[in-house]
Amino acid sequence: TGDTYCYPCYYNCYTCSASLVQTACLSCSLAKDHRYFVAANNTCVCMDKYYNNASSSSPVCGSCHYSCQTCTTNTACVTCNSTKGRVYNSSTGFCSCGTGNYDDLLN
């Protein structure tokens, strides 16, 4: 009879139900790729402080700039953590400290 084969999952899935389909993830690798599972659409997305670096030779979640809560690249913040006193600075694309605060260069 016919042979059966093992096919790869979409790059951001840890386990999947179909080959190379983004919405067929069954689980994600939080420890390895910093991704979490979204059950509503069976996808794996990067956690806060990381962005989907699909352009790299081995697509992973890349680290955002330390000041970003979420980002599209390591040099482009989308949101800032206001509980840490961060506000978006449109001239730099990063999150700066609000008035009366200083930057510890870590958070």
Radius of gyration: 18 Å
Estimate the global geometry from the Cα principal axes. Answer: elongated
Major β-sheet annotation: 2 strands, antiparallel
Whole-number mean pLDDT:
88
SSE pattern: EEHEEEEEEEE
Straight-line distance between termini: 59 Å
How does this structure look, described?
With 107 residues, the chain is mostly beta strands. It is built from one helix and ten strands. A two-stranded antiparallel ribbon has the order 1-2. A two-stranded antiparallel ribbon has the order 3-4. A hairpin with an 8-residue loop joins strand 1 and strand 2. The model has no long low-confidence stretch (mean pLDDT 88).
What labels would you give this structure?
single chain; two-stranded antiparallel sheet; two-stranded antiparallel ribbon; 37% strand; 107 residues; mainly beta; 4% helix
Write the layout of secondary structure elements.
Layout: E1 15-16, E2 25-27, H1 30-33, E3 35-38, E4 43-46, E5 50-53, E6 60-63, E7 68-73, E8 76-80, E9 86-89, E10 94-97
Antiparallel strand pairs: 1-2, 3-4, 5-6, 7-8, 9-10
